[in-house]
Specification:
Layout lengths: L3 H6 L16 E8 L2 E2 L1 E4 L6 H18 L5 E2 L8 E5 L25 E6 L2 E6 L2 H15 L3 E2 L7 E2 L8 E6 L1 E3 L5 E5 L5 H9 L17 H4 L2 H4 L9 E2 L2 E2 L20 H17 L6 E3 L12 H6 L11 H18 L4 E6 L17 E6 L10 H15 L5 E5 L11 H13 L4 E5 L4 H16 L5 H13 L3 H15 L13 H7 L3 H5 L4 H17 L3 H31 L6 H30 L3 H12 L8 H22 L1 H13 L4 H12 L33 E4 L3 H7 L2 E3 L9 E5 L4 E8 L5 E12 L1 H5 L4 H5 L2 E9 L4 E2 L9 E3 L7 E8 L4 E10 L7 E12 L24 H17 L7 H9 L3 H20 L20 H15 L2 H7 L6
Parallel strand pairs: 3-4, 3-5, 5-7, 12-19, 15-16, 16-17, 17-18, 18-19
Antiparallel strand pairs: 1-2, 1-10, 6-7, 6-11, 8-9, 13-14, 20-23, 21-22, 22-30, 23-29, 24-28, 24-30, 25-26, 25-27, 25-29
Helix pairs in contact: 2-3, 7-9, 11-12, 12-13, 13-14, 14-17, 17-18, 18-19, 18-21, 19-21, 21-22, 21-23, 27-28, 27-29
The structure holds zinc ion.
Length: 1001
């Protein structure tokens, strides 16, 4: 018997440039005849779990196709008839993995083969994973099964005769065109992981060259070098930036002072040690740089940059010089180990001084081919890739972003196909894709991508056509039209869409950006799409086809709700309020908006529950990844707040007698859950004191750092500028005269990387604030000539709220990135941003940040003026204002007032026991409660318990309210159970009950 290792060792090699599939004449193999198995699957007893699983799966699919399962044996002894060998066995031969075109030695570990020899079939692979690929390929390519999307509904089985199954099997040895494939964020559920395996999407065998992230903290640990060698760290604003120990936040990330030769030596020594610790598994290390903030400004480092690079935030020269010198050094001792880099953002431009990377360096080139709709982008991306390919000896890898969490259709299969084919032509060996896609819109493209990664020569239209035909049957032509419509819609260059995705601004522009996502398709195109889907539903009688179309349709309606409310929202924001009639119209529009939002929320929450790829996508991208914009309320309905504010302000100024009436009308609209808090904040915060100072930016502070700024940084605010002082000079951040509203001063961010103005104040948990700021963007002549629109830059402007606890730690109430932010919209002229802020538990301070993300359109600026932060007088539920309508919510039974009153009832009794402030826990809990509605049953339970213990107001089910098994009670628990009310009150148990056991209630 051949040992497994022997089969793997006798490597018959594939060179990547040759055709990956070498077919031969087919041979007829009978699997099932006359209702009986004519073949046996042999999975040797020593095979791994994957091979066992593949063997069972093969048998099961054959049964599903023709009604007869093939037996699965662990040995071929005594087996009569055709044998299907899964993996190496005593019958394997080196010839099973042979390939007529190859004699080299570097076959991909993903290589597999299917061979018919002496009447038997051999499924072979260089690894266990590859053996499974052979079986999966057989099920897919020879038996005709397809897995178009996760879940049984999207599986396709061809029609077969009952009790008969014969295949015409062609010998083949297959090497994937993209041997190293990594799909991330497309594995939310088991059925998704299974889909990935079945389609051989992600590489399963050990990956040798796939490290790309930022590892500098590990290479230069601050514990080792922070004190002794601060010069290894970057010089930032005249000082060495030595990061704090522990996990670094993004603003603490750094790139070392790479012009210092010792820095490269330290890296080389580190790599050697690191490789040697686990030579088998550690074959590569990343010297890649991702979103790094602190970069060296020392003279020697600056001298390595090309003129103008530093100002443009480009560091290719010094970076690739450094990587090469480390690579050269490491190669001396570790010639078979590799160093990876990420060609991204600040390092995306090919260096001028480095023409050739060392042959142990590999790179991943980031791109976003979704934006090839923008004229010129495709050509520029391709030229960049060619420039890079010339510099690398090892084949490059591609790093892509297909979905970016976009909830509207982001479907561009032909662009994807062009990129895959282009990469193949350039010999790219690997692909790392952040899939993150809204699958019901994109399933055909995602499936086709998996197929193209194995065979880039496949025709994209054939693949799409196959998907439509097999999933939609009689409705296939109409569904083809539907998907073509989605792709056309995606490729329309609508004004306001971000064109340049090569930088962070471009990335941010899509993920979690409502403007950008909404621009993926117009309401008119959605209507046309829905008409096509309705027609498709009529065309098919197959309930499974109808179900699939229903999912696709529901996904489009899901998008439609977001798009239509957003567009109405945008329209409302520019509505002027100059008369009573306009106030009335605005109130009517707000009611209408609210019903649209209600319908949207109903549909969205129903969709989230669905047991199909729509529900799974929403739960995966939303609940698991916290990536869906639809969950970030301020991003969706913000302008409704702006209109309500305008209405109230007009009333206050021009019709104060009617103010109360309008306030009541606003409060009495039965707002949706997401709007309720915001609208009551807007209404009830009116007329309060502005909690921030110098909000019109009229006073300037002495500030050394802003020589080039117009008139300095405003007093009472602190300024933080992204990255480094060069940006401060270039950006001309600062106060400027006559740019504000009414020709007052304003605060300007001009071009550059963006930044924030901050002001903090002390707050209490549960307090509610409304923060507003006026913002506009402007473009200079140069910008206009270059086609850069001010309106696009307005979208970068934002208000952001940050919370800190007493120890100064950031309190994140929510993992969602922009749950406490609001962004500007793509409009010209002044717009008001409004953010309602609820202070979470444990928080003692609130920081308001008024700022802008990176401005990628040169010549455009963002101007802020008139910031307000008002505290809402009360929550709607606690307000004593007359509210007329009967449908307004009743005040909650337990709220800070009723709980405080209740606690006061216990005080005289507790005083008798001489316990120092026994209710301090209860009070602390009460003070930190932020969601009283959700906390009602908890308070009901606690108070029932206290009433029973302290006031003899015994509920019948008192024992339910007390945790008698709580360790704090110890032996007293028995007494408590047995002793009756009187005993309970008189024992010393009180002390413990009150101070500790309550914690358990
Ligand atoms: Zn330096």
């Amino acid at each position: 018997m051949y040992a497994r290792i022997v089969v793997y060792a006798i490597t018959i090699c594939m060179c990547a440039s040759c055709a990956s599939v070498v077919p031969s004449r087919g041979e007829t193999v009978v699997l099932v005849r006359d209702g009986k198995a004519a073949a046996t699957i042999v999975v040797p007893g020593d095979a791994g779990g994957d091979e066992q699983k593949a063997g069972q799966m093969l048998s099961a699919y054959i049964k599903r196709l023709c009604g007869v399962a093939l037996p699965v044996r662990d040995s071929s002894d005594g087996v009569v008839g055709v044998r299907l060998f899964v993996g190496p066995s005593d019958r394997s031969s080196p010839i099973d993995m042979s390939h007529p075109n190859h004699g080299l030695e570097s076959a991909s570990r993903e290589c597999f083969a299917i061979r018919v020899r002496d009447g038997d079939v051999f499924f072979s692979g260089r690894t266990s994973a590859a053996v499974c690929y052979a079986v999966l390929s057989f099920i897919e390519d020879d038996l005709g099964v397809r897995w178009f999307a996760p879940g049984g509904l999207w599986e396709y089985l061809p029609q077969c005769d009952e009790g008969e199954l014969t295949v015409n099997l062609k010998d083949r040895t297959v090497v994937p065109d993209t041997p190293l494939r990594k799909w991330v964020r497309h594995d939310f559920f088991d059925s998704w992981k299974q889909w990935d395996w079945r389609n051989r999407a992600s590489t399963r065998s050990k990956r040798i060259r796939d490290r790309l992230g930022n590892q500098f903290q590990g290479v230069y640990p601050v514990e080792s070098y922070g004190k002794t060698h601060p010069e290894y760290y970057p010089l930032v604003r005249g000082k060495r930036f030595v990061p704090p120990p522990g996990r670094l936040t993004r603003h603490m990330t750094f790139w070392p002072c790479s012009s210092n030769p010792e820095v490269a030596t330290v890296a080389a020594d580190f790599l050697r040690r690191w490789f040697d610790e686990d030579p088998e598994n550690r074959r590569s290390f990343s010297l890649g740089m991702d979103d790094v903030t602190n970069i060296c400004e020392c003279e020697n480092c600056r001298a390595m940059d090309q003129p103008g690079d530093f100002e443009k935030d480009q560091f290719s020269e010094r970076n690739y010089t450094f990587v090469n010198s480390v690579a050269r050094e490491v190669k001396k001792t570790h010639p078979n180990h590799y160093i990876g880099v990420l060609i991204y953002r600040q390092l995306r431009q090919p260096p001028v001084t480095v023409t050739r990377m060392e042959d142990n360096v590999y790179g991943f080139l980031t791109s976003n081919c979704a934006t090839w709709w923008n004229p010129g982008t495709e050509e520029a991306d391709k030229k960049l890739a060619q420039d890079w390919a010339r510099r690398f000896k090892l084949p490059l890898g591609r790093y892509e972003y297909y979905g970016l969490g976009t909830f509207t259709p982001r479907f561009y299969p032909h662009t994807m196909d062009r990129q895959v084919k282009f990469d193949r032509q350039l010999g790219f060996a690997s692909n790392h894709t952040e899939v993150c896609t809204f699958l019901p819109h994109t399933a055909p493209m995602i499936w086709a991508f998996a197929k193209l990664q194995w065979d880039a020569s496949k025709d994209i239209d054939d693949l799409l056509g196959e998907f439509y035909a097999k999933m939609f049957g009689a409705a296939a032509p109409t569904m083809g039209e539907y998907y073509a419509l989605l792709e056309r819609a995606w490729n329309v260059p609508r004004p306001g869409r971000t064109r340049d995705f090569s930088n962070t601004a471009g990335q941010l522009a899509v993920s979690r950006n409502r403007n950008e996502q909404v621009l993926a398709i117009s309401p008119k195109e959605i209507k046309a799409g829905l008409a096509l889907l309705d027609r498709a539903l009529e065309e098919s009688d197959d309930p499974r086809v109808k179900k699939r179309i229903d999912i696709v349709r529901a996904a489009l309606v899901f998008s439609q709700h977001g798009i239509e409310t957003y567009l109405f929202n945008t329209e409302l924001r520019t509505r002027p309020i100059n008369s009573k009639a306009e106030v009335q119209q605005a109130l009517a529009d707000l009611r209408q908006y609210n019903s649209m939002a209600k319908e949207r929320e109903r549909f969205w929450s129903q969709s989230r529950q669905r047991d199909d790829i729509l529900g799974e996508t929403i739960r995966g991208l939303g609940d698991q990844m916290k990536y869906l914009i639809i969950d970030e309320f301020p991003q969706l309905d913000t302008y409704v707040s702006s209109l309500a504010l305008a209405v109230l302000e007009w009333q206050r100024e021009h019709d104060p007698d009617g103010l109360q009436q309008v306030q009541n009308e606003l409060l009495n609209i039965p707002w949706t859950d997401t709007l309720d808090d915001a609208m009551s904040t807007v209404t009830l915060a009116q007329g309060g004191r502005n909690r921030l100072k110098n909000t019109g930016f009229e006073r300037s502070a002495q500030n050394k750092n802003t020589k080039a700024a117009y008139e300095g940084v405003p007093d009472k605010w602190s300024l933080w500028i992204r990255n480094k002082p060069s940006h401060l000079n270039r950006s001309k951040v600062g106060i400027m005269p006559k740019v504000g509203r009414n020709d007052s001063r304003g605060f300007v961010y001009e071009s550059g990387q963006g930044g924030v103005l901050m002001q903090s104040l002390r707050v209490k948990p549960g307090e509610v604030f409304l923060c507003t700021a006026w913002v506009r963007a402007v473009a200079n002549e140069e910008a206009k000539a270059a086609g850069n629109r001010a309106a696009d830059t307005a979208r970068r402007a934002n208000i952001h709220a940050i919370f800190h606890d007493a120890k100064g730690n950031v309190v994140a109430p929510d993992r969602r990135m922009y749950a406490n932010s609001v962004f500007g919209d793509a409009i010209d002229g002044w717009q008001r941003l409004a953010l309602s802020i609820k202070v979470p538990a444990r928080v003692v301070s609130l920081t308001i940040m008024i700022g802008t993300h990176e401005i990628d359109a040169p010549g455009t600026s963002v101007i802020f003026d008139d910031v307000t932060l008002l505290r809402s007088k009360a929550n709607k539920s606690q307000t004593s204002k007359p509210i007329k309508k009967a449908d307004v919510k009743k005040p909650l039974k337990w709220n800070p007032q009723t709980v405080a009153a209740e606690l006061n009832r216990y005080k005289p009794i507790l005083d008798q026991f001489g316990i120092k402030d026994p209710l301090r826990w209860a009070r602390a809990d009460m003070e930190s409660e932020t969601d009283w509605a959700a906390a009602q049953s908890r308070w009901e339970r606690r108070i029932a318990h206290w009433r029973f213990m302290l006031l003899d107001e015994e509920p019948a089910d008192w024992a339910r309210w007390l945790n008698l098994d709580h360790p704090a009670l110890g032996e007293k628990a028995k007494q408590l159970k047995a002793g009756g009310k009187h005993a309970r009150r008189k024992t010393t148990i009180w002390t413990q009950v009150i101070t500790r056991a309550w914690a358990a209630t």
